[in-house]
Specification:
Elements: H1 3-11, H2 23-34, E1 60-64, E2 70-72, E3 84-88, H3 89-114, H4 129-138, E4 144-146, H5 152-157, H6 162-169, H7 203-216, E5 223-228, H8 235-246, E6 251-257, E7 260-261, E8 264-265, H9 266-269, E9 284-288, H10 292-309, E10 312-317, H11 336-346, H12 348-358, H13 364-387, H14 404-407
Parallel strand pairs: 4-5, 5-6, 6-10, 9-10
Antiparallel strand pairs: 1-3, 2-9, 7-8
Helix pairs in contact: 1-2, 1-13, 3-4, 3-12, 3-13, 4-10, 6-13, 7-8
Bound molecules: thiamine diphosphate (TPP) and magnesium ion.
The site of thiamine diphosphate has 15 residues, from strand 5 and strand 7.
Enzyme class: oxidoreductase
Catalytic activity: N(6)-[(R)-lipoyl]-L-lysyl-[protein] + pyruvate + H(+) = N(6)-[(R)-S(8)-acetyldihydrolipoyl]-L-lysyl-[protein] + CO2
Subunit structure: Tetramer of 2 alpha and 2 beta subunits.
Length: 424
């Protein structure tokens, strides 16, 4: 079996580029492929360890995390999570592969934006990939997610495809929202992903509503609402938190602290930038958001907590490499040295690449093959998206909340008399 093909079958997110046979078969192939690799049952603790041992792709490996969790009011509950996480070779290789795919997709979006194939808003997620990937390792698609406009990779994490993201970015009919939403409006209802929100903080009360639904329906699931350090100062967050705490809703608030809200550093906007403590009476946990395994462990803890006791506030310590959006060069309010040092010392993709190589779970040649396969997925998705048609004209006026024809007003200067209205 060709390794590149195998990795694509076992790991890629691509629905439409995914070869047509079941994942179980792919995983069986992966297992046979993995059998020859050295691995460890009890791996501890440093990334630099090079112990060789044999284990299959699904054998449990225990990793000691290099940064401790920091808690807020957790003593009244289960205390702090310990500093170890259980994983497998298959999971770690998948995490690397998924994060690498996300990184390449965001780099491609940057290039396409500069080439004017993508217009309008575009907020990239590169640097923050470990949150998305680690979070999904602790959740299932019956748990709900709602996030901000920085949503491209969340869509992949929820099982969406690179084509869906790319086509949406280019305003094409094959996009996640049929090309009428754009960068800020990825959406995947079948995996309980409710977007993509352009209004800062708007997702916080939406997340509380989703958590209410899970509890009301007696489902063993949680709702996760992700927001930034800038959004963390919004009033609606505290209103929703109050009601969620009163009603013990299974809600996980996740503050993705990339340390800037547009060009404003966290300390200039927040009197208390310890965002995991900002729930006051609601417990919190600070997590290394640059390590997908730390995120997984923290999320496992948070899900169990939310189901048993109600809301919890997580702070993911992370960093965005690009500017706030494509119109921000990202270097006027922070130094280039700062960006470079995070890339060199904390990059989530590099961290996992180093980990699986140091543990001798894969060879350098195999890592290169994974990377080549993921780059090909992105390249093909770009071409498919470019060839995708524009949405039909009448689609521009479907799913509108207000019937502006009745109100006799234009929408953003568009003359409504020249289009027909299609209600969906
Ligand atoms: C209610 C509202 N106010 C202001 C804006 C403009 N705005 C868009 S993003 C942003 C900064 C948010 O920063 P943060 O929450 O840290 O998220 P990040 O962009 O860093 O992911 C602002 C002020 C908006 N979209 N909505
Ligand atoms: Mg921010």
């Amino acid at each position: 079996m060709n390794h590149e093909l195998l990795m694509r079958r076992a790991y890629c997110f691509q629905k439409d580029l995914r070869p047509r046979f079941p994942v179980t078969q792919a995983m069986a192939l992966l297992r046979s492929f993995a059998r020859g690799f050295p691995a460890t049952r009890q791996f501890a603790p440093s990334l630099a360890s090079k112990r060789s041992f044999s284990a299959s792709a699904d054998d449990t490996i225990t990793i000691e995390l290099d940064r401790p969790f920091v808690g807020h009011k957790l003593d009244q509950f289960d205390g702090l999570p310990d500093q170890t996480v259980e994983t497998t070779k298959a999971e770690m290789v998948k995490m690397f592969s998924d994060m690498y795919l996300m990184r390449r997709m965001e780099i491609a979006a940057d290039v396409l934006y500069k080439g004017k194939f993508i217009r309008g808003f575009c907020h990239l997620y590169d640097g923050q990939e470990a949150i998305c990937v680690g979070m999904e390792a602790a959740l299932n698609f019956k748990d709900s997610i709602v996030t901000s406009y920085r949503d491209h990779c969340t869509h992949l994490g929820r099982g969406g495809t690179v084509v869906e993201v790319m086509a949406e970015l280019m305003g094409r009919a094959d996009g996640a929202s049929k090309g009428i939403g754009g960068s800020m409006h990825m959406y995947r209802k079948e995996a309980n992903f409710y977007g993509g929100n352009g209004i800062v903080g708007a997702q916080a009360p939406l997340g509380a509503g989703m958590a209410f639904k899970h509890k009301y329906s007696g489902e063993p699931n949680v709702a996760c609402a992700l927001y930034g350090d800038g959004a963390a100062n919004q009033g609606q967050l505290f209103e929703a938190l109050n009601i969620a705490a009163l009603w013990d809703l299974p809600l996980i608030y996740i503050c993705e602290n990339n340390h800037y809200g547009m060009g404003t550093a966290e300390w200039r906007a927040a009197k208390n930038p310890d965002f995991y403590t900002r729930g006051d009476y609601v417990p919190g946990l600070k997590i290394n958001g640059m390590d997908s395994l730390s995120v997984k462990k923290g999320m496992q803890y948070a899900k169990a907590h939310a189901l048993a006791h109600g809301p919890i506030v997580l702070e993911m310590d992370t960093y965005r490499y690009h500017g706030h959006s494509m119109s921000d060069p990202g270097s006027t309010y922070r130094t280039r040295e700062e960006i470079t040092s995070v890339r060199q010392e904390r990059d989530p993709v590099e961290r996992m690449r180093k980990r699986i190589l140091d543990m001798e779970l894969v060879t350098t040649a195999e890592v290169k093959e994974i990377e080549k396969a993921q780059r090909k997925i992105v390249d093909e998705a770009v071409e498919i998206s470019k060839a995708s048609p524009l949405p039909a004209e009448e689609k521009l006026f479907s799913n509108m909340y207000t019937n502006s024809k009745q109100l006799n007003i234009g929408i953003r200067g568009v003359d409504h008399t020249i289009v027909s209205y299609a209600a969906e």
